[in-house]
Amino acid sequence: MDVFTRFIIIDDDEFNNKICTVNISKIAKDADIRTFLDAQDGFSFIASEYSKPGNDASAILFLDLNMPGMNGWEFLEKFNQLDEDLKTRIKINILSSSVDKRDIQKAKENKNVKHYLVKPLTKETIRLITYSQNREA
Fold it and tell me: Are 10 and 62 contacting, i.e. CB atoms less than 8 angstroms apart?
């Protein structure tokens, strides 16, 4: 089984981003991990980096919902407008502190969202996510 080596974390909480980075690094030692405190910056990175000619790389994205400026839901709306090939290569996982059933249901209804996870991100969750998303690839 191939291990995902590219991860993107979009969350306005620097501490959460550090937790994610440390735990991902423990599972995938050579991982390329990009963190963004601003959803618009993260979206711009994905839209430009993953649409470059010849770039067929995939990544796992951990996306927070509640952020200032562009929130996670707005990110998902913009993401849905991207090229289909690009969208299939970015595996979106909501990573939120929200346990609101409406958020969970809305995420389940979004075709681009693979999983809804509650913070904090653990090594065990990363293993499960990478395993299930490798099986889908």
Answer: yes
